[in-house]
Structure formats: structure tokens, C-alpha cells
Amino acid sequence: MLQDKKYPFIGIAGLALVIYGIAISSFFEGWSNFITETIYESILLQDSGQLLIATFAYVAKGFLLFFFIYFGSMMMTHVFSKRVSGLISSLLFMAVTTISIFTLNQLYQENFSYLSHFITITIISLLQIFIPKQRYFLTIFAIILLLVIMSMQWLQLIPSLSQLGIGTGDFAVMIKMADNYFTKNNLFNTLATIFFLVFLIIAIIFTFLIHLLHKQIYTLKKYHEQEEKLRDAQVALAESKVYQEIAMVVHDLNTPLVTVEGLLSLIQLKMQPEDQNQTAAYFNRMNQSLNRMKDMIAEILYENTKHPIEVKELLKYVTSHLCLDEQLVRLTVNIPPDLPPIPVNKIRFSRAIANLLENAITSFAGKAGEITTNVKVVDNRVSFQIRDNGSGIEADLLDQVWTDGFSTRNSSGLGLSFVKKVVESHAGTVTIDSVPNRYTIICISIPIKKEGEINVERDHLSRR
Amino acid sequence: MKKSIPFLLCLVIALIIAFTNMDTSQSNPMTTYPNLPAPIGKEKILITSAGQAMEGAIVYSISESLHLDADYRPRALDSDLYDYQSVIIILGYSANGLAYTNRSFQEELSLTKALLTEAILQELPIIVVDLSSRGRDSKHTRELFELVTPYTAYYIGLKNEQGYHPYKQDLPKLDIPVTLLNELDDLATPLNSAFR
Fold this sequence. Notes:
The complex is a heterodimer. By secondary structure, chain A is an alpha+beta fold. Chain A is built from twelve helices and seven strands. In chain A, the strands form two sheets. Chain A has a five-stranded mixed β-sheet, with helices on one face. Chain B is an alpha/beta fold. A six-stranded parallel β-sheet of chain B has the order 2-1-3-4-5-6, with helices on both faces. The longest helix of chain B has 17 residues, at 5-21. The N and C termini of chain B lie far apart (68 Å). The relative contact order of chain B is 0.19. At the A-B interface, helix 2, helix 4, helix 5 and helix 7 of A face helix 1, helix 2 and helix 3 of B.
């Protein structure tokens, strides 16, 4: 459908079209005189060919006049279609068109038939049910309206229907009277009926084709959505299996690590190196590395494993893994000197911060930009504010960015949902604010570790 | 179902209008054809219009086929009558016909009245041909009818399902010969009998 901000413009354009339609008879006085003159000539010269020329001119003039009125009325009422029900919108359309026809009759005394007007509205209302209320509604409506009005113009010229009050307009009466004189209405009873039916049938066929096409597109869209969902589920399943296998492999690393640790202790005992010599230093470094490896394995295996870490060290670890060599992005990190250490799962929290920075870098699409990371303490919590001046996110999409699978860049859509999970597992909060093409700010706030709290928390084996 | 309400509403209104327009009353038995005991007019004839309906051209074309000595001058004035012995006035208001002559309806009324007065002064018989079908049944045609009929020597109209139009009910009271035609083609006979 159309954007809300375009509606006032469409309404005003519709009103202008209706007014133009009503005033068109004044603008095309020469056209009316041509029709009158041609009908006179056809009678005086007994030339039915002239009458046909006058008829086509009449149909064309009537088509323009009524097209502007009906299409303008539809544009005007279309403005209200989002605010009021379809029924009220249709009744408004009926009211606007009827008032316009009444005004026409009062202004020009042409005696246009109200019955023909209501038949036109009946046909339009019926066909409109099958026109999809999509982006191209007004275009499709215009094409169908064109065919219906052409059909109705010919309906005015069927002499047999005059007794019902159809074709009471001045020109229609003139043409039918002339035809009565020439052919006792045989010509127009046949010709006008054929043209009326042809245009009406084309309008009906076109409407049903559009309806069928729309249904087909809708079905395909649904089918495509289901396919996407199925594919996502397959990917999630595959990822889950991969994570399970990684967890098992990492878990299995523990066994040779314990063996290495044990044997290293045994060798150290047998060699009894003196504290100051080179060998003792090597043993110390090997023990430290082993401990670090054990910590890393624990952090991977246990989601809730948290160790106090300096913010500076954490961000250094994150930024050292970012690839900024081919980017025109300037990354600034502001950390106050007196920040306390924060208890985090280093691997997972670093990944979360890295996801945010990578998103910011991607938003520049290779262009120059600036990313600023500010860290500060607010109410016993550490706040990470990541700000970029990239493409930003539309306001109506901000609520969806944390949803699994949501992406504006055709990516997996798992990055930000992972960030939210990790922050929440650290009893933290994450918020986002963005103005398209100006800025995006993401704030992560996590509590600072209290004195004496146990450093390491362990949970069951994590499985995604 | 809710979507169909506008369609059904329009359909009902259209049917009501169509039903109202259909007249099932019987034809008035007083219609006559032809009823002139003797010719009432002489040639040369001025065929003119009151309301500028294009039916005047049809009457002129029929008069030509009858070899009547006639001129078709839809915009004739009272000063043009000096050359004629009879006047045929074609009754019927046409908005576009009037626009073509650059006259307003009020001008048309006053010009017609002046023409009628002059014709009566010159003792010219006035024959009114009223081929107004339902399409011409407007308040302007009624005004013209009321203006012209008191001066009429012979009235030729179209018979339709309703017999007389409601505003033509007073025609018999005017004591003028009236011929109502079944169809347009029948016009030649009363027109001919008015002059021969």
C-alpha cells in the first residue's frame, strides 16, 4: 500500500481531478460544438458515416469527463481507506460521484442519467471486490475504470434501453434520434450493444486475470516464506549439531590436558629445578599456559563461567581480532583509568562486543566512518556505549533487531540475538537507538562484581 | 459478504430507478392519427426551433422529401417572418444545441415569444412538432411547451407508452387538432396533410 505521507497529496490530486472533470465541458466547448455540428450535418446530408464520427467524439468526450470524476473520487476516498472501513470508504465513493453527477446536471442541464451512474457504480463496486488492495491498486483501478466507462458510454446509446431512463444525456438523445431517423434504431441497437458488451467483458476478464495473478503471487509468497523457515530450521539444526560436536571435542581435550599436566608435574618433581634457573622458568610458563587452556575450555563448555577481567584487556582482546586493514573506519576506544574488573565469560562476552563492532563496520559499506566505544561506571554497573555514524536502522524495525533470524542485510540474523542472550546471561541489559543515515547507539550495561564474590560459576554443559 | 454491501446497495438503487422509469400505464385512447379535415397552412414554410433541439433538421429533411417549399432556420427571428406563409416550430430543449447558437435559455424564451407574437399578428398558422422523447423531458422543455401551445394551430407529437406526458394533459382542452405518431417515420403523413 501507499505510504501514509503520500495520502494528503493523493486526496488533493483526487479533488483536483473531480473539479477538472466537472469543469471539462466548459474547457471543451469546441468539442461539444463539433459533435452538435456533425450530427446536424449527418441529418441534413443523410450521412450515417458523419453520425458515427459524432458518436465516437461523444464517447471520447464522455469518457474523459466521467473518468476524471470517478477516478478523482476514488483517489479522494482512497485517502480514508486506512482510517475507515472498506464499507464506509465505498459509500463515500458513491456519495462523491453522485454529488458530482448532480452538480454536472445542475451546471450544464445535460440531463445525465442517474440510472446509468448507479449501474456504473454497481459494476465498479463488484469488480473492486476482486482488485487486490496492493501497491498498484490505483493503477489497476484506472485501467478497469477506463474499460467500464467506455462500456457505459456505449450503453447510453442503446435506443432499446431509453425507456428505462438510460441515455438521457443531451448528445445521447440527439444521436439516438438521428439513428431513429436513419435506420429506425437498428444500427445503434446492434452497434452500441456490441461495443458495450465487448468493453464490459474485457473489464471483467482483466479484473479476474488480476485477481488470479494476485492469488498466484500470494500463494508463491507463502510458499517461499515456508521454504525460508524450513531452510532456517535446517541451518539451526546443523549449527546445533556443529556446536554439540565442538563441545564434545573441547571436552575431550581435557583428558590429554590432564595427562600433560600430570606428567609435567612428575618431570618437575624428578628434575627438581632450582627456583632461579632457566628450566624452572620454562616449567612456570608451561604451567601458566596449561591453566589458561583449562580456563578457555571451561569458558567454552560452561556458559556461566565468569572470571574478573580488566575492561581494557577485554577490549584489547576484541579489537585485536577485528579486521580493519581494508576499511576506512576510524575506531576510538575511551576507557577511564580507574575502572574495576568485571566478571564476564571472556570468550562469549568478547564475541558479543565483536558482533556489535562488526555490524557497525558493515553499516558503512566500505565508506569512511567513525566508531566510538565509551566505557563508564554508572550506578555500580559498567556501561559500554558503541556509537557509529553509519546507515542506521528505521525506527519501526528497532523492536525486531533482537529477534532470531531478523536481518536487514540478508545475513543469518543471529548476531544481535546472540548479543542479547550473552548480556542477559551476565545479568545485564542492552538497548538500541538509531536515526537512519545519522547514528546508531548500542548500550550494554552489566553489574560490577561485588567484593568476596566467588569468581567462577559453573553451569551444565552448554548446548545451543 | 461485507465487501459486497456497496455492490448490492448500488444494484438495489439502480433497480429502483429502472422500475420507477418503467411506465406500465395504458395508452391514452384519445390519440389520433391523422385528424385534419383540410390543409391549414400554405407554402412557403419557415421551419424553426424553440429550444434548439436538433429534431428540426429531421423535420426539414422530411419536408424536403415531401417537396415542400421550406427553409430551415433554427435561429430565425420575428423579423424573418415576412417571407413565409406558415411556421413550423420544433419544440425541445437541448443544452448543447443552445450552446451552439450562443444563446441563453432566457434569450431563447424571449426570442420565441417575439416570433410567436409576430406570427399571430401576420396571421401565419403555427404548427408545432414536438418530438421530445423522454430524454428531452426537462423543466425547460415544459416551459417552452407552455409558451408555444396557446399559439398552436396544429400539434404533432410522439406517442409513447405513457400517452401524453403529464404536462401535456391540457392539450385537448386547447381545442387544437392533435396528431400523435407511433414513430418518427410516420411524421411525413400529417406534415403533408397540413399543407396539401
